[in-house]
């Protein structure tokens, strides 16, 4: 069995220990020769690197493991690069959430004005990093989790149009599939989904079981009657439970398809704003929760010198999805995964150059998306306006255009008013001086 060299960008991410744990668990399916963690933050990288040394010493002793802050060490002779970076860190995420909320519009990591702000920060670093990777490893598969994935995918499509080995993915469809499994008391591994939309902006139209029965009608019924919770509800913070609970409202209003949880911000912007606290947002919850927990546990394990008894609570769906996508590419398994690809007729009544999220057969040559066909007017209208917002955001980045930025935010359903859009934009420009291109 061929063994692969893997690098992880954003090696100091809060998701890294979970991913490393899953790499150990799945090492017979996706065996690694060399693993390099790369981060620009030496301290974060070292803390997680020292934890990883202890983990691998016990669980993966044959692995050649390194961690670094040097580009050349990270990207030489690598087969798969996994990316999960956050330009500006949680401190900037906090601003993305709080600035819009303080002005009465949605402030969220990837949706609305917050996602816009984060997108304009991510593009620059993502482009630089992919150039760095390509300097050393021309053919490496680049599997990207970095958010906001919709905007990152659109920017990378434009900057690297010939590069067929950059794939943007999101774990939320898998989180939902596993949660459907919990609701129905079935193993989601046997589900075959039909899904369409944009990243954090999509719907399940069908969900087939191993016998070809569509489970959507039953799921719809159960969600309407009993509500909806995540598969790992016991480990979730309150804001995530609130988010999953909103699926019931969405299914009541639009029962046709099962919505991605992120649609709550677009269906109910005013309601969500009135239920979000502008002084304490998800960024605060994460900084006081996951970030603290993960780094404390890494330090504890490094000191103890053993992972024995260590409980690193993590989202299996997130880490296993990434590894399974890599595995399916590595061994041409042709398994079906929901990923972000260029439309090219998949949704037949939508422009070809939209980056859509759909079910695809994952082959050694990457995703071969499954046809969706024509989508109904409601979804088409929503997707076209959201896609125009995404494209204008990326235009604003490449052209340094204030006008395009203003158009983007005005089109976003969470904002709508051009006066509000200008107000939010001006405050975000002030807060993002260090990261954004200069707007003319
Ligand atoms: P985090 O801040 O804990 O981790 C990000 C790490 O990236 C930090 O250690 C930081 O120093 C590092 N970093 C920043 N800029 C970098 C650069 N230019 N090069 C290399 N490293 C850099 O954040 P997190 O919450 O753990 O999330 C990490 C990323 O994964 C975010 O972009 C997040 O949105 C994304 N994510 C995406 C999905 C998805 O569904 N696509 C799911 C989970 C997380
Ligand atoms: C889901 C989404 C990701 C997002 C993450 C946020 O997994 O698919 O895109 O980054 O949730 O989680 P957090 O716990 O940081 O709010
Ligand atoms: Mn996502």
From TrEMBL:
- Annotated Glycosyl hydrolase family 4 C-terminal domain ranges read 195-414
* UniProt cofactor(s): NAD(+)
Keywords associated with the record: Cobalt, Glycosidase, Hydrolase, Iron, Manganese, Metal-binding, NAD, Nickel
EC number(s) on file: 3.2.1.-
Q: Which residues form a coiled coil?
A: none
User: Which Pfam families did the record assign?
Assistant: Glyco_hydro_4, Glyco_hydro_4C
Q: What is the active site of this protein?
A: 171 (proton donor), 262 (proton acceptor)
**Where, by residue number, does substrate bind?**
93, 147, 282
Residues flagged as site, Increases basicity of active site Tyr: 109
Q: How is the cofactor bound?
A: Binds 1 NAD(+) per subunit.
* An MF annotation (GO) of this entry: oxidoreductase activity, acting on the CH-OH group of donors, NAD or NADP as acceptor
KW Cytoplasm (keyword) present: no
Q: Which PANTHER family match?
A: 6-PHOSPHO-BETA-GLUCOSIDASE-RELATED (PTHR32092), MALTOSE-6'-PHOSPHATE GLUCOSIDASE (PTHR32092:SF14)
Question: Subunit structure, briefly?
Answer: Homotetramer.
Describe the family membership recorded for this protein in Swiss-Prot or TrEMBL: Belongs to the glycosyl hydrolase 4 family.
Task: Provide the protein name.
Answer: Phospho-alpha-glucosidase PagL
């Amino acid at each position: 069995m061929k063994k692969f060299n893997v690098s992880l960008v954003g090696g100091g991410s809060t998701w890294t220990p979970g991913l490393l744990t899953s790499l150990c668990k799945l090492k017979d399916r996706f065996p690694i020769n060399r693993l390099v963690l790369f981060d620009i933050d030496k301290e974060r990288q070292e803390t997680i690197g020292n934890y990883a040394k202890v983990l691998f010493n016990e669980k993966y002793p044959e692995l050649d493991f390194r961690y670094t802050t040097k580009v050349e060490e990270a990207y030489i002779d690598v087969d798969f690069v996994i990316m999960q970076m956050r330009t500006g860190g949680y401190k900037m995420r906090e601003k993305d959430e709080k600035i819009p909320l303080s002005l009465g519009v949605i402030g969220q990591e990837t949706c609305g004005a917050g996602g816009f702000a984060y997108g304009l920060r991510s593009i620059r670093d993502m482009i630089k990093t992919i150039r760095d990777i390509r300097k050393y490893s021309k053919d490496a598969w680049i599997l990207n989790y970095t958010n906001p994935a919709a905007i990152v995918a659109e920017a990378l499509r434009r900057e690297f149009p010939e590069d067929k080995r950059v794939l943007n993915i999101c774990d939320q469809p898998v989180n939902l599939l596993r949660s459907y499994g919990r609701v129905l008391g079935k193993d989601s591994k046997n589900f075959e989904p039909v899904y369409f939309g944009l990243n954090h902006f999509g719907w399940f139209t069908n969900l087939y079981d191993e016998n070809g029965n569509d489970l959507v009608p039953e799921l719809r019924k159960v969600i309407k009657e009993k509500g909806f919770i995540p598969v790992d509800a016991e480990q979730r913070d309150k804001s995530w439970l609130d988010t999953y609970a909103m699926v019931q409202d969405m299914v009541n209003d639009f029962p046709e398809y099962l919505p991605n949880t992120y649609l709550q911000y677009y269906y109910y912007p005013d309601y969500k704003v009135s239920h979000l606290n502008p002084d304490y947002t998800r960024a605060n919850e994460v900084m006081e929760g996951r970030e603290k927990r993960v780094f404390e546990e890494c330090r504890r394990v490094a000191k103890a010198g053993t992972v024995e008894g260590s409980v690193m609570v993590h989202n299996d769906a997130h880490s296993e999805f990434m590894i399974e996508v890599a595995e399916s590419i590595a061994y041409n398994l042709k398994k079906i995964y929901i990923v972000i690809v260029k439309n090219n007729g998949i949704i037949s009544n939508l422009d070809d150059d939209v980056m859509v999220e759909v079910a695809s057969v994952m082959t050694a040559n990457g995703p071969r998306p499954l046809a969706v066909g024509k989508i109904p007017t409601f979804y088409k209208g929503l997707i076209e306006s959201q896609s125009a917002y995404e494209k204008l955001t990326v235009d604003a980045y490449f052209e340094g255009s204030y006008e395009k930025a203003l158009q983007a935010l005005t089109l976003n359903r969470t904002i709508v008013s051009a006066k509000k859009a200008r107000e939010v934009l001006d405050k975000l420009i002030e807060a993002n001086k260090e990261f954004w291109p200069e707007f003319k």
